[in-house]
Design a protein that fits this description.
- With 125 residues, the chain is mainly alpha-helical.
- It folds into two domains: 65 residues, Winged helix-like DNA-binding domain superfamily/Winged helix DNA-binding domain (Arc Repressor Mutant, subunit A, Orthogonal Bundle), CATH 1.10.10.10; 48 residues, no CATH class.
- Helices cover 60% and strands 11% of the residues.
- The chain is built from six helices and three strands.
- Strand 2 and strand 3 form a beta hairpin.
- Helix 1 packs across helix 3.
- The longest helix is centred in the middle third of the chain and has 17 residues.
- It is elongated, with a radius of gyration of 18 Å.
């Protein structure tokens, strides 16, 4: 199972996953974090990126004096793993419990409910 990311690590991974380039530069991350109103100290970002490399989420390639970071895990793979962990932990592996809670807890909009209903009626493809 994939290791859970801290909130700060997840913010960095979201930027990397959303980057249209195959690799992400350190300077790009600094700029994006600042643009999102989440400025980060250089040393803090270095530590967070090092943790992401250690956890197997990123690879780092040194090009001259800069590092290029490449994601090793797709965002959807992370989401799926975390969803499964949540279902196992909170609902003891019972997906029906999650869906029931979403519906009876009034946590879905009508549009989301209709989309979910269509997905369930269509089955796995």
């Amino acid at each position: 199972m994939l290791q859970k990311l801290s909130d700060a690590e997840y913010e960095i991974m979201k930027i990397i996953w959303e980057n249209p380039e195959k690799t992400t530069l350190f300077s790009y991350l600094m700029d994006e974090l600042a643009a999102q109103g989440k400025p980060c100290q250089k040393n803090t970002l270095i530590v967070l990126l090092s943790r992401l490399v250690s956890k197997g989420y990123l690879s780092a390639t040194k090009i001259g004096r800069r590092n290029e970071y490449t994601p090793l895990i797709l965002e959807t793979a992370y989401q799926t793993a975390q969803t499964q962990h949540f279902i196992d932990k909170i609902y003891e592996g019972n997906v029906k419990g999650l869906v029931t809670n979403l519906i009876t807890g009034d946590l879905l909009t009508q549009e989301e409910y209709e989309e979910l209903k269509e997905l369930l009626e269509g089955g796995k493809r």
